[in-house]
Amino acid sequence: MSKAKPSKPDPENPPPSPVRSGGPMRMGRFLLLFGLSLAVLFGLLLAPVNEPAVRGFTRGLVTVSAVLIRFFGGNAVALGDLLQNPTSHFAIQMAYGCNGAHVTILLWAAVLAFPASWLQKIKGLAAGTVAIHAVNLLRFISLFYLGQYRMSWFDFAHLYLWESLMMLDTLVIFWTWAYMVRKSGSMADASPR
After folding, report:
1. Using CA atoms, how far apart are residues 190 and 193, in angstroms rounded to an integer?
2. Residues 6+ apart with CB under 8 A from 167
3. For the chain, what are the domain ranges?
4. Burial class (CB within 10 angstroms; exposed 0-12, middle 13-18, buried 19+) of 169
5. pLDDT tens digits, 172-181
């Protein structure tokens, strides 16, 4: 009986490289779920039945901003969706789209589409939402002060600087969460069955 000898590797026909199961499937699945999540979440946000809740949420953010300004020695009152300095009468309105809901929906869609356990997703949604709204409060309060003291910089800060920073904040939050999920090894299997 002869023993089988291991064959020498053929340089012209190398063995196929190992392919991770579900690699392209994961990206396709993510993009599909991300798009569907965006459509559903923006549909819910824009539904007329939810408009009173969105307005109430926005007024709540303005109230929290006024409380924080007064807590740190400033002078501000909340008048619905307006934040006003009662001394100078300068006011800033938290308009639709300035309440952080849009970037929160982007984060939620990305987290929901990412292959992770439901517990990890819930943690990501909760922590990410708090982080986004903390930065958005800082944004709104800084614009309140900037509008009073440097109106010439207000438009740039409002339309370009803070818009970019809010998007960057959302991306960093998602990337940090996704990195932590991958590092913990609790990614859900998204390969075809």
Report:
1. 9
2. 103
3. 25-184
4. buried
5. 999 999 999 9
